[in-house]
TrEMBL record:
It comes from Allohahella marinimesophila. Pfam families: DUF3592. The keyword Transmembrane applies. Keywords: Membrane, Transmembrane, Transmembrane helix. The keyword Membrane applies. The chain crosses the membrane at residues 6-24, 139-157. Residues 59-129 form the DUF3592 domain. This is DUF3592 domain-containing protein. It comes from the Bacteria.
Length: 168
């Protein structure tokens, strides 16, 4: 019975690692496509700030213990038509530090560059990276999970083979 714990942990870590890797690859490819093929225009803030996420503890007194969401809206014009968006980033940040870093770069009333899809101008972002983070850290993390999962599976392979041979 002790065999199943590490075996199950190995399978779970391997599956989570594969899922995180696939997700990060989709984000990296989307970011590359946006940077390569989307057009730019100038945007203006309607509002910019942050709010505590609903998943945070309402009784927490430690601001770093909470998850945050950007609370912002910006406008931009493409070929004379006005658009607005509440999604300035390709990646959604939740850490207070990341949101504070974003808010320190942009101020109310400030103009900035907006990337928009020329075929669907209502789709837009301001930044495609998470404050200079390329998203490659997710690839590293997923690789680490997969390696640990494979090591756990290999370490239990002999025990599984022995157990199966005794059952026959």
């Amino acid at each position: 019975m002790q065999l199943y714990g590490p075996l199950l942990a190995g399978v779970v870590l391997l599956v989570i690692g594969i899922a995180v890797f696939a997700s990060s690859q989709r984000k990296l490819k989307l970011r590359q496509r946006i940077e390569r093929s989307w057009s730019t225009t100038t945007g203006q803030w309607i509002r910019i700030g942050k709010r505590v996420s609903l998943t945070s503890s309402p009784t927490s007194r430690d601001p770093d213990a909470n998850a945050y969401l950007l609370d912002c809206e910006f406008t931009y014009t493409v070929e004379g038509k006005h658009y607005s968006s509440t999604t300035p980033l390709l990646y959604e940040p939740y850490l207070r530090h990341d949101i504070d870093t974003f808010l320190s770069k942009y101020k109310a009333g400030q103009s900035f560059t907006v990337l928009y899809d020329p075929y669907h101008p209502e789709k837009s972002v301001i930044e495609t990276t998470l404050y200079g983070k390329s998203g490659k850290h997710q690839v590293f993390f997923s690789g680490l999970l997969m390696i640990i999962g494979i090591v756990l599976l290999i370490s239990q392979a002999e025990s599984v083979i022995t157990m199966l041979s005794h059952q026959r």
